[in-house]
Amino acid sequence: MASTEDSVNAVNRAFSKQSLNYDSIDQENQVLQDMRQQVYHHVSDFLKVESRILELNAGTGIDALHYVTQGHNVFATDLSDGMISQIEKKIIKHHFQDRFICQQLSYDKLDQLKGQKFDYVFSNFGGLNCIDDLSKVTMNLPAILNTGAFITWVIMPPISLWELLWVFKGYGKKAFRRLYKNGVTAHLEGEYFKTYYHSLAQIKNAFGYKFKFIKSEGLCALSPPPANGDFPVRNPRVYQSLRILDSFVRSRFPFNRWADHIIVTFQLSHNH
Question: What is the DSSP code string of 226-271?
Fold first, then answer.
């Protein structure tokens, strides 16, 4: 079994390799673009003017740049050397050095940020699925958050209806991979590392009594996930119909927990 350090290094290498073409992959995938807009819409209900945002697993800084251009201050963190390098290029290119900074940092090392205070903690598209226990992240949040701060994370849950359909194509192992209790080995850019799927109940337990659960909604509960990125091109009308259906059910049980990803928002309690 690979050690934790080996796994961390594999994640770093995989996403550093992916960082070189991550932005082009994102821009070419209509499903990803629609998912990102849904996440932004969700966050807009809670994000106050000129907030100080801490972003975890910030990738190449696509989301960070979005929020900086909206007038917020963003502290972007990521484990990957390559991703941090891409963020630094964006900061320089757009001349946002005064409101946009980054640091190579794993999200289970947030104790290193003590002394700083944030109004919002944001994490998009499943980066937090690389850790087996989310409490390793949440335990360090109260010390670095202002009272009433919000946290919005986008996480892959154990049940995705689209993935379950793989069983009808004879790919039973792939269809049920999210249900493995001890995680599953992911393969990315020639590297192998463990990923873990977190249920809404497990996420709530990780946040504990210091945080109030606010909302969850499904991302691609009925519409196809990013792996089916060509679906909107091949079936534009069906895709739009499924997106409309999604908009009606994604905040309701069970689709607020059964989806490709779920968006979850919590708030630091005022009496923590």
Answer: GGGTTHHHH-HHHHHHHHHHHHHHTTSTTTTTSSSEEEEEEEE-TT
Domain span at residue 48?
4-268
What's the token pair of residue 113? 């940020």
pTM of the model: 0.95
Question: Cα(82)–Cα(102) distance, rounded to whole angstroms?
Answer: 12
- Residue 155 DSSP label: E
Distance between CA 32 and CA 255 in Å, rounded? 19
Give the separation between CA 159 and CA 197, rounded to whole angstroms.
9
Q: Is 72 helix (H, G, I), strand (E, B) or coil?
A: coil
pLDDT at 27: 94
- Max Cα–Cα distance, the chain, nearest Å: 53
CA gap 125, 251 in Å, rounded: 18
For residue 104, give the 3-state DSSP assignment.
strand
Strand partners, 42: none
CATH of the domain at 161: 3.40.50.150
Tokens coding 98: 């005064």
The number of domains in the chain is: 1
- Note the helical H segments in 29-160: 30-44, 62-69, 81-94, 135-138
Rg, Å, the chain Cα set: 18
If the chain, 272 residues long, is cut into consecutive pieces of 10 residues, what is the mean pLDDT of each piece?
72 93 94 97 98 98 98 98 97 96 97 97 97 97 97 98 90 87 90 95 97 98 94 97 98 97 95 64
Residues pairing with 122 in the sheet: 55, 152
CA–CA separation, 101 vs 68, rounded Å?
10
